[in-house]
Specification:
By secondary structure, this protein is mainly alpha-helical. The protein folds into two domains: about 1-75; about 80-150, no CATH class. Helices cover about 65% and strands about 0% of the residues. It has helices at about 5-30, 30-45, 45-60, 65-75, 85-100, 100-110, 135-145. The radius of gyration is 18 Å and the shape is globular. The N and C termini lie far apart (about 45 Å).
C-alpha cells in the first residue's frame, strides 16, 4: 500500500473510531453496550481491541464476574513463552488480584529479567515522573510478594 492509499486511511479511521467507542463504553461501564460491542468485534476479528477490553476489565472492574471472565480469555489467548514481559507482569498481577492464584502468577513472571536501568539523559535532565521505572517497580513488587530474590 502506498502512503496515500484510501484503504489504509479507512482502516486507520475505523480502528481509531472503534478504539474511541470501546474506551467510551468501558469508561461508562455500559454492560449491555459492551456485550454488543464485543460480539461485533469478535465477528470482525478485532483481537487487539478485544484484548484491550479484557485488560481494562481486569484493571478497573476488579471483583466483578466480567473481570474473572476477562482473565480467563486473556489466559486462553496468551502463553508466557510468547507474551511480552510487560503483559506477562500484568497478567501475573491479575492472577493474584482476581483469581488469587499465586502459583500460576509465579509461572507467568518466571524468567523475566530486571528491566534496563535508566540514567539521566545526554543533556543531564532527569525524569519528571516514574514512568520509565513502572515495569521494574511492578515486577519487583510481585517478586517481593512471592518471597523471591530481587
Amino acid at each position: 500500500m502506498t502512503k496515500g492509499d484510501p484503504d489504509d486511511l479507512n482502516s486507520r479511521i475505523r480502528r481509531s473510531a472503534l478504539t474511541a467507542l470501546t474506551d467510551g463504553i468501558l469508561a461508562r461501564r455500559e454492560k449491555n453496550l459492551l456485550s454488543e460491542l464485543t460480539t461485533y468485534l469478535r465477528g470482525g476479528g478485532e483481537k487487539g481491541l478485544l484484548q484491550r477490553i479484557d485488560i481494562h476489565l481486569c484493571q478497573f472492574w476488579k471483583g466483578s464476574e466480567e473481570a474473572a471472565q476477562a482473565l480467563e480469555r486473556i489466559l486462553e489467548d496468551n502463553e508466557p513463552e510468547s507474551t511480552p514481559d510487560q503483559l506477562r507482569i500484568l497478567i501475573a498481577e491479575f492472577l493474584v488480584r482476581i483469581a488469587g492464584d499465586v502459583d500460576l502468577a509465579k509461572k507467568w513472571i518466571a524468567g523475566i529479567e530486571q528491566p534496563q536501568q535508566y540514567a539521566r539523559d545526554d543533556w543531564g535532565q532527569g525524569f519528571s515522573d516514574l514512568s520509565p521505572f513502572i515495569q521494574r517497580i511492578r515486577l519487583n513488587r510481585l517478586l517481593s510478594a512471592f518471597g523471591c530474590p530481587i
